[in-house]
Structures are given as structure tokens and as C-alpha cells.
Design goal:
The protein is of the alpha+beta class. It is built from 13 helices and 14 strands. The chain folds into two domains: 183 residues, Beta-Lactamase (2-Layer Sandwich), CATH 3.30.450.40; 200 residues, 2-Layer Sandwich (Alpha-Beta Plaits). Helix 1 packs antiparallel against helix 2 and helix 6 packs across helix 7. The radius of gyration is 28 Å and the shape is elongated. The termini are far apart. 34% of the residues are buried.
Length: 396
């Protein structure tokens, strides 16, 4: 077995070249270990991560089943069964843990052991996966082999764990990098950054529907509310918008205090941008409804009303890296963004939640004329459109 397990270690050291994903690695690893004469019933790898919503992911392999990937939310840290699980025990102690369930008198000190015993598991081994930064993750091995793992099989699994840890750490770092980029700059911008678009001036002109929104009266609220309540209010305000934008294919580019800038890129098949405008408009209606329900569902002390203003426009934007030599922002700029900002301000002046440019309205049925207005910085008066159910200034 020693010679055969060496081939598994070499495969891991080479970066598992025949596997394309983390799931493929676990599937092929388990098959290779079985081919070495180690009968496995179930193998689980738990790797913690840096993510705003989850603490880690579990990858579980069983024969004749696809590898299952599950995300563990932060709430699981309140679950006593998880807190008292063997894997968390290994996280704390950084030492292997084994329970030979086939032996009389085996300690049944974890709830999961009773489940394994009912499934006919004879042996259960949890090995720590030690990352180079000191973090401890874990892999568990189970078998139904009569008598459990032999000493030789146990030694083989213990040799696999360090090699697996090196590869798991590489994949975990990649995942963390993507998590952070998705969280702070958005998935599309993050993808561009990962593919090397990181130099100042790396930009391109794209066509997109532009979303620019803010909370009305935020300055007065900021003066009146304590920081904790103000932060809570802002998070709820953005919770009413961001999921709707994402569901309809948009990407949030930045938060500016109480403001939000997002784009809905025009793809190659969307010749005149009508699909991008329809998506932005659908997201706008969904967000407007969510914000209208916000104060009723989540009363916030000191806030009588949450008011929302949004401008929609479509045009060419310069999309990419802008900033200082070593501190960049991945964003979009250009006359189209400036026009959206002017329209968003006008929406507040007219007491409307939503206004759209003539270019946007021409591609999106359901908007009605509001008027023609002079906007700061623009020579020609601009015709704007709004929702038919809202009242505002008469068209002029």
C-alpha cells in the first residue's frame, strides 16, 4: 500500500491536474484512495472561508453519488450540535480524533456517532488540515469495513491529510479572493480584475442602463440618529434594492453614503438596449415596493418614513480602473452617469420616487412624460419620464 499511496501524494503535489474543480478533486482523491485498498464509505472536507454570509463549506463524497457541497451560515455557530461536533473539536485541538465504532465500549460522545452507528459505520477518523497561516480545517474519513481501518490504512490516510491541506489552501485562497472581490466590487468587475485588468487607465466603453438612487432626507437623519441605528437603516435600505438589482442582471458598482450606483450592461444580442432597460425597470419597481414596505415591516425608532429616489438612463459609460497609482476604484464615469445624477436630483425636487431619461423611456414601455427641464451643466432642456401612478410637476 505504501507505494500505491505515494502515487496519490504525487498527484496532490502536482495540483490534481486531472481535476477541474474542488468537487472533482475530492471525487478523484477518494477513488484513488480506494484503489490503494482503503475502503471508504463517506469522506467530508470542511474548509472555513472569509465571506459576509457563511463561515465555510462542506464537501461530502459517497460512492455512486455526486460530491455534495453545502454552505454553513454564521447562524450555525449557535447550533449546539455543530458546536459539539467532532470537526469543531478538531478545529479547537488541532489533533486527529478517531472513534472505532466497531469496538465494544467505544465512546459515543458526539451525536453524529449514533447516526454513523445506525448506518453501519465501523470506524471514523477526523484529520486536521493545517494551513500555512495556522488555520485548522478538517477532513473526516469513515468506513464500513469489518474491524474498521487497519493500522496501515490509518497511516495512509494520515499521510494524505497534509498533502490535501496544501491543495485545499490554494483553492480556499482563490475562493476567498473571489468572495472579497464579489463583495466589494461586484462579480463582473471582480472577474475583470482577476483576469488582469488592474492597471490605472485599464478601461473600456460599454453601453448600459444606469441606476442611480439615494435616500431622501438622509442628511437630516444622520444628524438625528445615533450611528448604530443609522447603519441599521442604511443596511435595510440597501437590502430593499441590491437583491432586486442582482435578480434582474444588474451589478452594483458602489455605495456612496446613502447613494447607490448600478449598471445593467447591454449584451451583444440586445441591439438597442431594450432588454437592459426592461431589466432595470423591473428591478426599480421591485425595489420601490420593498422600500414602501420597509417602515411597516421594520419600524426604526426616530424614522417616520423612508423615502427613495431613483434615476434611470441608458448610454455609453467608461468602465474600469480610475484613481491613484496604488489605490484604484473599479467604476463607471462619463456624460451618461452625469445626466443620471442630474435626473436623480430632479426626482427629489419633483417629489417623485422614479424618473427616467427620454432615451431610457423610448426603450421601456410603462413610463409617462413628466416635463422638459433645464439641468445643471447641460445646455439643452431634458425631457424626463416617470411612473403614471405618481403625481409631480406638470409637463412643460
Amino acid at each position: 500500500m505504501t507505494d500505491r499511496i505515494e502515487s496519490v501524494l504525487d498527484w496532490l503535489a502536482e495540483g490534481a491536474p486531472t481535476a477541474a474543480t474542488a468537487e472533482d478533486i475530492l471525487e478523484q482523491l477518494c477513488r484513488r484512495i480506494e484503489a490503494c485498498g482503503v475502503p471508504l464509505w463517506r469522506v467530508s472536507v470542511f474548509v472555513r472561508t472569509l465571506h459576509p454570509n457563511i463561515i465555510g463549506r462542506r464537501f461530502t463524497w459517497q460512492p455512486d453519488k455526486p460530491v455534495e457541497t453545502t454552505a454553513a451560515p454564521f447562524e450555525i455557530m449557535q447550533d449546539q450540535q455543530f458546536i459539539n461536533s467532532p470537526v469543531v473539536h478538531v478545529f479547537r485541538t488541532a489533533a486527529p480524533m478517531r472513534r472505532r465504532l466497531c469496538e465494544p465500549g467505544c465512546p459515543m460522545d458526539f451525536d453524529v456517532l449514533h447516526d454513523f452507528a445506525r448506518d453501519g459505520v465501523s470506524d471514523y477518523l477526523v484529520s486536521p488540515l493545517r494551513f500555512t497561516n495556522g488555520e485548522i480545517h478538517g477532513v473526516s474519513w469513515t468506513t464500513r469495513q469489518p474491524g474498521g481501518f487497519t493500522d496501515e490504512q490509518t497511516r495512509a490516510l494520515e499521510r494524505v491529510a497534509p498533502a490535501l491541506a496544501r491543495l485545499a489552501e490554494i483553492y480556499a485562497l482563490r475562493r476567498t479572493t473571489r468572495n472579497l472581490l464579489d463583495t466589494y466590487v461586484g462579480p463582473h468587475a471582480g472577474e475583470r480584475i482577476l483576469h488582469g485588468q488592474i492597471r490605472r487607465g485599464d478601461t473600456e466603453t460599454i453601453h448600459a442602463a444606469i441606476w442611480l438612487s439615494d435616500m431622501r432626507g438622509f442628511t437630516a437623519l444622520a444628524d438625528r440618529l445615533d450611528p448604530t441605528r443609522l447603519t441599521d437603516l442604511l443596511n435595510r435600505f440597501f437590502d430593499a434594492q441590491v437583491p432586486a438589482i442582482a435578480r434582474h442582471g444588474g451589478e452594483v458598482l458602489k455605495f456612496i453614503g446613502d447613494g447607490l450606483l448600478a449598471i445593467f450592461p447591454v449584451d451583444g444580442g440586445d441591439v438597442d438596449g431594450a432588454s437592459a432597460c426592461a431589466a432595470a425597470f423591473a428591478a426599480a419597481r421591485a425595489a420601490r415596493a420593498e422600500i414602501a414596505a420597509l417602515e411597516a415591516a421594520h419600524a426604526i425608532e426616530g424614522v417616520e418614513r423612508v423615502r427613495f429616489g431613483l434615476a434611470l438612463h441608458i448610454g455609453a459609460v467608461l468602465y474600469g480602473n480610475i484613481g491613484g497609482p496604488e489605490r484604484l476604484d473599479f467604476t463607471c464615469i462619463g456624460p451618461a452617469v452625469n445626466l443620471a445624477a442630474r435626473i436623480e436630483k430632479l426626482a427629489g425636487e419633483l417629489g417623485r420616487t422614479l424618473l427616467a431619461s427620454a432615451e431610457f423611456a423610448a426603450r421601456c414601455p410603462g413610463l409617462v412624460p413628466v416635463g422638459r427641464f433645464s439641468l445643471r451643466g447641460l445646455e439643452a432642456a431634458q425631457r424626463v419620464f416617470g411612473l403614471p401612478e405618481e403625481t409631480g410637476a406638470a409637463e412643460r
